[in-house]
Amino acid sequence: MRPNIPAAILATLAREHGTPLWCYDATVIRERIAQLKGFDVIRFAQKACSNLSILRLMREEGVQVDAVSLGEIERALLAGYSPKGEPAGVVLTCDLLDRATLQRAVELGIEVNVGSIDMLTQLGQASPGHRVWLRINPGFGHGHSQKTNTGGENSKHGIWHSQLHDAVAVIREYGLVLVGLHMHIGSGVDYSHLEEVCGAMVGAVRELGCDLEAISAGGGLSIPYRDGDPVVDIPRYAELWNQARRDIEGIVKHPVRLELEPGRFLVAESGCLLSEVRASKDVGNNHFILVDAGFNDLMRPSMYGSFHGMSLLDAAGNPSTAPQRPTVVAGPLCESGDVFTQHDGGLVAPRALPAAQVGDLLLIHDTGAYGASMSSNYNSRPLLPEVLVDGDDVRLIRRRQPLADLLALEQF
Ligand code: LLP
Fold it and tell me: Which residues does the annotation say bind pyridoxal 5'-phosphate (predicted)?
């Protein structure tokens, strides 16, 4: 069972902090970081899980960070990252620069990974000499869902590959400094296209003929959400990218840094969502259990039809030994799509789970990435507490949002 936190501890945490509750295992995060040591720089895509304590853990482990918004920049700074340095502690990768973010990026001198020529021009006008990356849309992309495919002509991301010369002209016009080229073709990628991606990066450097310090392979590394899902071959992945880096060094005639920008891979398997079974009912042929977490907490099944493993602890905190039965797991929201078992394209895809009693704990696994960070206050539900377990050190790293917070900004 992932994460490797003993069931008894999870049950105690649920009692202490109430449910629903996010729980992360620091050991799993450190293991994943260690697996990526074949890259010069690991840059955590904090959108996957942006809690300050997780960011601090990353920093302590020598991982740099990526930010996509003003809020994520401020999080990185609070976690102790510096925008300066080579490699920079923080890089801003966004699709557009809203005015407040542009101003802060200029003030901090933060490297910006640029996704359009307009963005590049705005940055050049506001801050001549700024350090920039160019995010390339190579004309193709892949992802676990159409919604996480970030390449090709249906994607809003990056500068279309045939317009890179125009981008370089803008760089020259404003005396901007090109730090590197970046390519992130999607999230939850299958690796059959890896050689094509590396080839596109080398081709872009050759065609542009300009100098650079670094390349970034983006993120996208998948994890096995289901038993039997392919496990990414990290050594092969690192070797192909290192070969691309060597080819590029041959072109620019000096060492080039290789960066990787994973989110999911580093944190997904460290996390689980603890919820309490509050009701069960038979609806025609379907057996439902209703838990106290909803899609406002964990959006992935409703948004992408994503599969997450589940397990059940009985009221005493022991893994349930009850006989299994096909079960639909749903939440409390006033929406029919508030169902956690809806993979295989169906709204309700019953799953074999031990027969549940009211009061049992349902664990939803592999929710460390794009779990808490995608939560919302829909149905006026507060954001959940988060706990980080690091061996014997168990810490509440975010309190449950008080209901008063939800109302504090509103006025009659
Ligand atoms: N770099 C860039 C520029 C990205 O846009 C992303 C993810 C990453 C890195 C990290 O990708 P990862 O290694 O985590 O796959 N909410 C979706 C995933 C959306 C990812 C958006 N960008 C999900 O729950 O699957």
Answer: 220, 261-264, 370
Give all domains of the chain, ordered by start, each with its CATH number.
37-261 (3.20.20.10), 269-407 (2.40.37.10)
- With a 6 Å cutoff on the Cβ, whether 370 touches ligand 1 is yes
Both tokens assigned to 208: 């542009």
Going by alpha carbons, the residue nearest to atom 20 of ligand 1 is 187
Task: Record the tokens describing residue 176, joined without a space.
Answer: 């901007």
Q: What is the mean pLDDT of residues 184-190?
A: 79
Amino acid (one-letter) located at 45: A
The pLDDT value recorded for residue 347 is 85
Q: pLDDT grade, residue 145 (50/70/90)?
A: confident
Q: Is 334 a catalytic residue?
A: yes
Cβ 65 vs Cβ 90: under 8 Å: yes
Known binding residue 261? Answer is yes
Give, using CA atoms, the residue closest to atom 19 of ligand 1.
148
What Cα–Cα distance (Å) separates residue 215 from each residue in 9, 172, 212, 222, 258? 42, 19, 8, 21, 5
Q: Return the minimum-mean-pLDDT range out of 106-120, 176-190, 348-362.
A: 176-190
Confidence of residue 403 (pLDDT cuts 50, 70, 90): very high
Closest CA to 290 of 343, 327, 320: 327
Distance of CA 411 from the midpoint of ligand 1 (Å): 36
Average pLDDT estimate for 116-142: 95
pTM: 0.97
Which residues neighbour 349 within 8 Å (Cβ) at sequence distance 6 or greater?
328, 341, 342, 343
Atom of ligand 1 nearest to the CA of 182: 3
Alpha carbon distance 366, 46 (integer Å): 16
